[in-house]
Amino acid sequence: PVEWLAFAGDIEAILALKRERNAVVLAHNYQTPEIFHCVADIVGDSLALAHKAVTVDADIIVVAGVHFMAETAKLLNPNKTVLIPDLSAGCSLAESITADDVRLMRLRYPGVPVVTYVNTSAAVKAESDICCTSGNAKAVVESLGVARVLMLPDEYLARNVAADTDVEIIAWKGHCEVHERFTAADIRELRDAHPGVIVLAHPECPPDVVAEAEFSGSTAAMSDYVEREKPTRVVLLTECSMSDNVAVAHPDVEFVRPCNLCPHMKRINLANIRAALEQNRHEVRIDPEIAGPARRAVERMLSL
Q1: Whose C-alpha in 24, 166, 235, 285 is 20 to 30 A from the C-alpha of 181?
Q2: Alpha carbon distance 121, 67 (integer Å)
């Protein structure tokens, strides 16, 4: 209770600023509960945020997430002001590949379509044929009607999709610093310590982790699983705040919480959301030559 009282001033100020400036806050599932539940207007995984960003009726969009998410919101809302509370909120996956890398891969594999995870910069998206998220990766790959694709940059997501499709997938070597740390041994230890626990793994986890889990899916799919199945005891192998946020709606479910924090997501807080709205701070701008082809890659995904 004392901690929540400490948030009250910033929360009240943000709510007032949103009304005054016709602004909305988009928050990813990995944001802390005081952001996710108290100031966000739209919440979800990357796919949900991309879909909902298209329909935002506001002049200003504040993205409580990392930089590639703010860029995606800007791509889909070129005439709106998009703000990110902290410019240094990056992503290990996005930083693992450049536009030059994609061009070199195209030279090495001529004619092979490039499927790019949304966890990438706009410049990388601009070199791609279509984007995907962890929630629709298999559907995107199979929608192309080809025998093989390049899937960038998450190696584990690519390998997990490859295990579930006949399409040959050529992967890059990028990894998420949150999900790559989970191991199959972790799952076995969790089961020993918490009998009957149901394990849900994000597809950015290594393939042996996904194979060991009862279910694998995006953060939205994990949330849906808990809502649908109502397990007595569950563990979500993903970023810490995901369990905190899902648990609010499921007080009868015991959440076991092995904690892997995303340091980039945790750069976003109430204070810098408030400052972004007060000062119009950190507006996202994208070179028009990059924005056009990047937007097409995202929109092609959303049209499926």
Answers
A1: 166
A2: 8
Neighbour-count burial for 155-182, b at 16+ CB within 10 Å, e otherwise: bbbbbbbbeeeebebbbbebbbbbbbeb
Looking up residue 22, the CATH number of its domain turns out to be 3.40.50.10800
Q: The domain containing residue 33 runs over which residues?
A: 2-91+265-279
Say how far apart CA 36 and CA 283 lie, in whole Å: 21
Distance CA 304, CA 115 (A): 14
**SS3 assignment, position 255:** strand
pTM of the model: 0.95
In a domain, 301, yes or no: no
What's the pLDDT tens digit per position in 164-206? Answer: 999 999 999 999 999 999 999 999 999 999 999 999 999 999 9
3-class DSSP state for residue 260?
strand
Q: Measure the CA–CA gap between 56 and 61, rounded to whole angstroms.
A: 8
Q: What is the pLDDT of residues 101-159, one digit of tens each?
A: 999 999 999 999 999 999 999 999 999 999 999 999 999 999 999 999 999 999 999 99
**% helix, strand, coil for the chain, step of 5:** 45, 15, 35
Same domain, 201 and 123: no
